[in-house]
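Q: What structure does this chain adopt?
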Amino acid sequence: MGNRLPDNFLWGGATAANQYEGGYLSGGKGLSTLDAITGGSHTSPRRITFKTADGRTGSVTREEPLPEGAVGYIAPDIYYPSHVATDFYHHYKEDIALFAEMGFKCFRMSITWSRICPNGMYDVNEEGLQFYDDVFDECLKYNIEPVVTINHFDTPMYLADHYDGWANRNLVDYYLFFCETIFKRYKDKVKYWMTFNEINFLRSWTQIGIHKNDAATKAQAHHHIFVASAKAVKLGHEINPDFKIGMMVSYIPSYPMTCRPEDMWESMQFNHEREFFMDVQCRGKYPNYRLKEYERNGINLVTEEGDDEILKEGTVDYIGFSYYMSTVSTTDKNAAKTSGNQVMAYRNPYLKESEWGWAIDPLGLRISLNQIYDRYQLPMFIVENGFGAADAVEKDGTINDDYRIDYFRQHIQAMKDAVLIDGVDLIGYTPWGCIDLVSSGTGEMKKRYGFIYVDMDDQGKGTLKRSRKKSFYWYKHVIETNGEEL
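A:
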């Protein structure tokens, strides 16, 4: 295995179009569900604005179902963070040059479905295709490998409003048309793809366009997404056999709070919620524990003939995953809780937490890499890992984010230990929010992840000027030494 990371290890950074790209109606783009979601904060949740059939407008939290028949609505007097975000659409050359200065070997980004197909159907927007051509060409100019997430938490609003999103089987065909369009267009520019971002977090109208949030609707929507992903993998390999097409899951390992067997069982159940989505996409079939759960809860999936074969034939080439934190499981419902990364979790008394309540657990990354690799024996790719914090700009313009450097130093060491000591097969590492962007969970700009600071506040005010943080220079040196010097 050697005593250093391979020379072709993909160091880079990660972003998402809905949090970074902006240009929400530029260049022929259609509306996305995430264009109708407002900002939020620690205490006030993000909300979806909607309009009912009789013309009334209102809003619900993003976890609540929309009223029957309601459609997404963009109110003129409300701030929507995704509309400008940090404006990659108009700054992509400047940003990619900064990534190149850091020495990126790859750049993980997503393509906005409604920028390519404004209504999400069979309409193709050439101006949108050309935008991503220009982005990929700019990356390749600096020998930066694009790593593309095909769908990152957004659904064309037309499909959400008129088809009930992924609850409708028709979205499989619409998604496949989208995939075929970009696979053929970029087959000589993009090698690494992922079908859906954090597939285990896909729920609600904002992410998958469904109006009901009950278990049966979500299970049916997930089935359609599984079928679409498997078909996309098969289609991509037919278009270019050299494509590497992966899945992406949010991986949050859970430790039992105590050695009580009941706590161990709770931990297993929690981990199954992540493993289920990997089981289907890596093993090509539903695991028995989930089928029995559906049976107990009276959930009867509507499937079509051939679905089982599709899942078997469309297993992924690699596993992309995000890792930010771990949690603990217990039967003690009075145990101290914390919310982090879209889950309600229990506090681990042995770990410190970020300002947003996320447990800081570098060893958990090594544990996660081993758990996933032992279960599936597939190459892995850490496509998100990072530290959200409220950065301060000093009077001289510097941003001294030593806390971020410390976080990354420990997590990269844990990653190296998993590869060099434990023998895990790892493709690369792309820290989340390599440049400041809008928080997915809260819609804030205050919660920053980047090596590059962007002048924008929580109300959408700022110059959008880019500035290098202290971590920029640190990560540049890490890449220069291939992770030898942390």
